[in-house]
Task: inverse folding
């Protein structure tokens, strides 16, 4: 897969300490260690409050993360644990094993205190508000879809797309864009008209009309104002 580039829209940033790049990155030789180190930074950023930790069991269930180790089954699990052990030995992470699970923390003052507190029984991981991070499926976001199928982003359309994200399911937006492309009506007003129609009248069957019937409705009916003749 070739990465198509970052969106021109600012996306969420993941905080990574500068010292990781200055002191640790030049020393890391294993791709697996680098991968899990960055993954843990991402997973920790999802946590709503302290103490922030990542479970081995959660990482093992992340299909995209495990697939990145290229091996299969038990070999993937061994590769993941080996990479995590390397990150701990280097001092990027600290770990606490309780029963059959392992908890990983950033090797910071807070992380070390939380790790020791868990080992000492001062807090219970099961009672903490915790988000199990799973890498999202490989799918272009709304901004990338717009750029690929309609045209360049402008500040005004960015605000419009952000509002649409809050109003409609991502699958609806993707499908409405697809319909606009198939019918060669590449403007957002047309896409938005489809979305409003689905929201008001229900989605089921809305995009299953024949091409002829659909085009007639578009050019003569409720979407006529959005079609360029």
Result:
């Amino acid at each position: 897969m070739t990465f198509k580039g970052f969106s021109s829209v600012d996306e969420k940033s993941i905080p990574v300490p500068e010292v990781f790049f200055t002191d640790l990155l030049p020393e890391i030789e294993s791709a697996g260690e680098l991968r899990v180190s960055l993954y843990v930074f991402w997973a920790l950023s999802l946590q709503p409050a302290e103490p922030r930790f990542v479970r081995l069991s959660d990482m093992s269930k992340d299909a995209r993360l495990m697939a990145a180790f290229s091996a299969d089954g038990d070999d993937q699990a061994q590769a993941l644990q080996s990479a995590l052990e390397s990150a701990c030995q280097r001092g990027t992470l600290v770990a606490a094993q309780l029963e059959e699970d392992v908890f990983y923390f950033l090797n910071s003052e807070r992380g070390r205190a939380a790790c020791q507190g868990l080992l000492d029984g001062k807090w219970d991981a099961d009672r903490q508000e915790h988000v199990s991070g799973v890498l999202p499926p490989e799918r272009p976001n709304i901004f990338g879809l717009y750029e690929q199928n309609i045209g360049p982003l402008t500040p005004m359309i960015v605000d419009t797309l952000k509002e649409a994200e809050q109003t409609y399911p991502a699958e609806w937006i993707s499908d409405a864009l697809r319909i606009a492309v198939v019918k060669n009506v590449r403007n957002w007003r047309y896409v938005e008209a489809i979305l409003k129609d689905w929201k008001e009248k229900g989605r089921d069957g809305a995009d299953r009309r024949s091409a002829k019937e659909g085009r007639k409705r578009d050019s003569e009916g409720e979407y006529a104002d959005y079609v360029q003749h």
